[in-house]
Design goal:
Blueprint: H1 2-17, H2 33-41, H3 60-77, H4 81-93, H5 95-100, H6 105-148
């Protein structure tokens, strides 16, 4: 009976723990914990072990693979403004590493600015369309009143 209770406790702990990120070498108060947790939750980086090994160097292959997964995710989900802010802060944080592999932060920042400008133009267009719709609705009401007379 003791074995059964012990096995039950172990299994229930494992099942409960699968909902949480459980890297043993990143405490929850670590500055990178939320970023790592977010990348694991989003499927950009796998959690296939209990160690993250945050101080280990990353090969260019690994970096390219994970960056490609992140960019594919952004393309598939069309990032919102919050995602762009996070990505921008990551680029800033890792700018030295990105520059070593030939990443151009100025081009990236230019693309972000263009996307933000596009968002503003779209908002303006929506506002103008809403004004036109309101105007047409009023004209339609006046026409219906005239026809009803």
């Amino acid at each position: 009976m003791k074995k059964f209770i012990f096995i039950y406790l172990i299994l229930s702990t494992l099942i409960f723990a699968q909902g949480k990120m459980i890297f043993q070498d990143i405490p929850q108060n670590h500055w990178a914990y939320k970023a790592v947790e977010n990348l694991v939750d989003e499927g950009v980086i796998p959690q296939d072990a209990y160690l993250f090994r945050g101080n280990s160097p990353v090969t260019r292959y690994e970096f390219a693979y994970d960056l490609s997964k992140a960019l594919n995710k952004v393309n598939m989900e069309k990032a919102n403004r919050g995602d762009l802010v996070i990505l921008e802060s990551l680029v800033y944080e890792f700018s030295q590493e990105l520059n070593k592999i030939g990443f151009d932060a100025e081009t990236f920042n230019g693309k972000i600015e263009n996307i933000q400008n596009d968002i503003e133009l779209l908002k303006k267009g929506i506002s103008e369309n809403q004004s036109s719709i309101n105007e047409l609705t009023e004209r339609l009401k006046k026409l219906e009143e005239k026809v009803g007379d």
